[in-house]
């Protein structure tokens, strides 16, 4: 899919050049966020390393290099000399084997911010093991805290470790290091591990475990045990989400449902009866009835929307009228230099980018990776690059 050539980057990160060697999801999402705020992102693929997730490729330029060949490595080195940031997601030791390790590249460009974004990090007993979001959640105590008490733990898609603990934490580290490099002229290496990010995201919850606030998985105020912080089925099979934690919000919920005098909702001995009362109330009408009834109130009640319903929700549509499933918004909003969703262009920009880096046509031809005849995607790196 090619919408149009990407316009010149604008935004608070305009002038920052990012070389992206990552694949799968966390690295490309991280660099998409940087691109949204104006960074120039150059994605280096080649051969079997195609574009893994096109949805994360907006605003980027794509080149194809044979990093197993001297000419391809030389081209990468020429490009790195012009860059501010490099992002890679290989297992420890792989980048060094293809001439893209931190020590090698920092010698060429001392101001380079080099981000290694991996699951387990650069050291530790599991550093060389394979893993996915659910693996890191399991080790970080996140997975063991999610799901119903009478069922197995449930992962919230791959949002926590991959994107929150991985992409967002890596982007934060990159921005911090870029700011520091602007004043010192010295870059540094960032060891961004998804398992570490998942640990950090639990900061508020660690002290609550095994206390009355959160005695076990599926229990407690936020874990699924409280009747005023959970979802309820409606008459049409849809659901509403109730988050009436504070007394005022709970009273607004109870009175809007015309249930009489609100009970003391923090008394755990009353929770079973409160739950039964709310279940009976919400099953009496379809979801959209409750959506309309609670609109504009402080009862903290919202419809549980399926992914194909989100973009027609009045609030989402008002804030992001140009967005949709294939064009998620650039966030957060900045008042003076806002982020923007630049066009998606998956064309091969190898020749243009390498000419800008000073390579001759002969060098470009030698450095470019041949297309993979099997048509494999970037999810399938050859063994020597895993």
Automatic annotation (TrEMBL):
EC supergroup of this enzyme = isomerase
The UniProt record lists the EC number as 5.1.99.4
Species: Xanthobacter flavus
Q: Where is the composition biased (Low complexity)?
A: 365-374
The record's annotation in SUPFAM superfamilies points to: CoA-transferase family III (CaiB/BaiF)
The record's PANTHER family line, in alphabetical order, gives: ALPHA-METHYLACYL-COA RACEMASE, SUCCINYL-COA--D-CITRAMALATE COA-TRANSFERASE
Region annotated Disordered, chain positions: 361-386
- Write down a Pfam family by its short name: CoA_transf_3
Specify the protein name: Alpha-methylacyl-CoA racemase
Keywords carried by this UniProt record = Isomerase, Transferase
Is Isomerase included in the keywords of this UniProt record? yes
A single GO molecular-function term is: transferase activity
């Amino acid at each position: 899919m090619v919408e149009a050539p990407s316009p010149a980057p604008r935004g608070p990160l305009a002038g920052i050049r990012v070389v992206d060697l990552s694949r799968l999801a966390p690295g490309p999402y991280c660099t998409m966020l940087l691109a949204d705020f104006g960074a120039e992102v150059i994605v280096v693929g080649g051969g079997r390393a195609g574009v893994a997730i096109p949805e994360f490729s907006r605003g980027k330029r794509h080149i194809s290099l044979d990093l197993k060949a001297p000419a391809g490595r030389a081209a990468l080195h020429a490009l790195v000399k012009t860059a501010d940031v490099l992002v890679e997601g290989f297992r420890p030791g792989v980048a060094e084997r293809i001439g893209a390790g931190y020590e090698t590249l920092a010698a060429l460009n001392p101001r380079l911010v080099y981000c290694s974004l991996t699951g387990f990090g650069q050291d530790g007993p599991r550093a060389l093991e394979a893993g996915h979001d659910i693996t890191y959640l399991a080790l970080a105590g996140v997975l063991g805290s999610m799901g119903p008490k009478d069922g197995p733990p449930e992962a919230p898609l791959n949002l926590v470790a991959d994107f929150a603990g991985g992409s967002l934490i890596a982007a934060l580290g990159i921005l911090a290091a870029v700011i520091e490099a602007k004043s010192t002229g010295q870059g540094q290496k960032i060891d961004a591990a998804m398992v570490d990010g998942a640990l950090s995201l639990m900061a508020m919850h660690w002290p609550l475990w095994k206390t009355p606030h959160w005695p076990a998985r599926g229990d407690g105020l936020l874990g699924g045990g409280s009747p005023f912080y959970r979802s309820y089925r409606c008459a049409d099979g849809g659901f509403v989400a109730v988050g009436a934690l504070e007394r005022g919000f709970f009273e607004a919920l109870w009175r809007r449902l015309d249930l009489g005098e609100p009970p003391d909702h923090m008394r755990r001995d009353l929770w079973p009866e409160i739950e039964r009362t709310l279940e009976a109330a919400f099953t009496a009408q379809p979801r959209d009835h409750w959506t309309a009834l609670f609109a504009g109130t402080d009862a903290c009640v919202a419809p549980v929307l399926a992914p194909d319903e989100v973009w027609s929700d009045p609030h989402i549509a008002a804030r992001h009228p140009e967005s949709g499933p294939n064009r998620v918004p650039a966030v957060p909003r900045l008042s003076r230099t806002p982020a923007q969703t630049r066009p998606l262009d998956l064309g091969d920009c190898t020749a243009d980018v390498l000419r800008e880096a000073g390579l001759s046509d002969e060098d470009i031809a030698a450095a470019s990776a041949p297309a993979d005849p099997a048509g494999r995607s970037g999810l399938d790196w050859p063994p020597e690059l895993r």
